[in-house]
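Appendix B. Chain record.
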Amino acid sequence: MALEVRRDGEHRFVGRNERGAEVHLGRTGAAGAFSPAELLQIAAAGCAAITAEELITRRIGNDSTFRVAVSADRRDGAQELDAIHLAFDLDISALATPQREALAKAVDRAITRLCTVSRTLKKPTPVTETFPT
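Structure tokens predicted for this chain:
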């Protein structure tokens, strides 16, 4: 899979995949762009949502909507995130308490086993770079 990030102007970049999708990146606070740390958080929330989608829609309806809010802990001045927090927001009022608990456990198990982003973030993952010389 070919992924790339290209500079598109001062402090502006565009990430692309081979299917034509684009995401705008920039420094924290840049209008119309995600910072790389925000994208990391979005990736964790998106992976969790995609992983849990079928479990959720099978129990509360195929046309149901839900969201995954994401936040992170970061020490002042730190150049890394200390924790990423995901919070599912969905209407489970039609489910009895045992069904709600079973769904929460099933979602947690699925994310733990299948979410590539969360699994990667939970272990040391080398990042390498090359630079022309």
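Further analysis of this model is presented in Appendix C.
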